[in-house]
Protein: tRNA N6-adenosine threonylcarbamoyltransferase
Amino acid sequence: MSCTILAIESSCDETSAAVISDGKILNNIVATQSVHEKYGGVVPELASRAHQQHLIPVVSEALSSAGVSKKDLSAVAFTRGPGLMGALLVGGSFSKAFAYALNIPLIDVNHMEAHVLAHFIEAPSPAFPFICLTVSGGHTQLVLVRSHLDMEVLGETLDDAVGEAFDKIAKILGLPYPGGPHLDRLAAKGDPGTFAFPLSDMKDLAFSFSGIKTAVLYFLRENSRKEPGFIAKNLEDICASVQHTLIKMLMKKLVKASRERGIREVAIAGGVSANSGLRRALNEAAQENNWRVYLPKLEYCTDNAAMVAMAAHYKFLEGKFCELDISPLAKMKI
Ligand code: KG4
Ligand code: ZN
Structure:
């Protein structure tokens, strides 16, 4: 039986739709919300309104560019959570109405599982079991992936997500939002050994990223007081040193998880997996630890509906549908 699914992603500030047919992604349409830039962070109310505005044009484009009409669809899928409640409600309500009108099944998808399953969009895909470090603006998790739909969080951040640390530090440095990619670009031109920041060391496989943000803030205040123009003069070296520290904290726990579990199939996912320093560090660790590593294509690192479609495909194969009275969850566990 052939199966074609329309998938919707609206958990944060990207409105996205994708079509998947028999496990093959046909497209991945993403409308980025630029409205948040001037506020230096995502404004939830504005995100919901922008989703309202973009969703139907994005869906229409996804269907027409895939050459698929509504009557060809076997199911519709949406991100149930985690994410911003107002933003999730827009995608969720649309998907319910769509499923109801077309009388097709509805599939709810966990956004964090979808980030992991982005690895199945294109070959090579990791073999089970593998460990995935999922790093985004809202989460930092080490996930043991036993099968497409069987995942366990081995450790996660106790406070800020690493993407949040990138963005907040970038904001202190005066970079535009979201700051992660800007910090990455500047770091490439700096020397990571110039400044030392404290490495947090949490128990077991837990992370913490709030300390470094505060340490960088105090460090910059102190140095700017002593030397006006300190940030501008040292921007590239500061970015390189911060990025180096954040990556070191991530890699330490990833290596620990791999050793503890005896697993050498290792992947990264989520927005921060686009970071060039982290991608390099993963490749280096692969050499040292005899890992096989998997890095998503850049378009599948940050939020997108193709990954939601991939997750929906596996749920469809197992007949895992949801009822039309389902509600979104701002917090949702794997
Ligand atoms: O997965 P994602 O698109 O949204 C969430 O689910 O949160 O991740 C967004 C996060 C932001 O914090 C953004 O700054 C970060 O990913 N990010 C990066 C890079 N590209 C995106 N952080 C560091 N370096 C990058 N190249
Ligand atoms: Zn995400």
Notes: The first helix runs from residue 44 to 66. The chain has a mean pLDDT of 96. The chain is about 45% helix and 20% strand.
